[in-house]
Amino acid sequence: MAHELAHANLGHLNKRRANAIIGWIAGAAADAGIMLGGMSTRGAFSRVLSQAGARAFSVAFEREADYVGAYYAARAGYDLAGCEEIWRAFSLEDPDSIRLTTDHPITPVRFVQMQKAVDEIESKKRHNLPLIPERHFIQADVNEVQVENGSYP
User: Fewest Cβ atoms closer than 10 Å to its Cβ: which of 37, 74, 87, 104?
Assistant: First the structure.
């Protein structure tokens, strides 16, 4: 629930819609250009680029919602100890999720990111700091950690 609430509060649905519209506009321009050449695409470029636009940044949106959602769950009083294990369970259930992704991060990345988010939250609890997501978004890669700017409610 916290993950989905984070999507809503971070405006991911509206951003996804805007990306789809941008993709559709680019596709419509390609369709029109080809139509001027005397061939009909039957809107193929509009459809494909609209779908591609909708998927743009979806992996980043999922990672952001995981991170912010962990804070929401912690602030609601849930114990996050071991919560990253859900990603190990998913990878056992669906082994392809370990190495393949389309619109969600691969499970090892989510596992590592959740470990780091929980560590960050626990550190704040130990130091009596407010449980507010940082102004940076920790992107845990399987091999490295990158920091990307962002803002959170």
Answer: 37
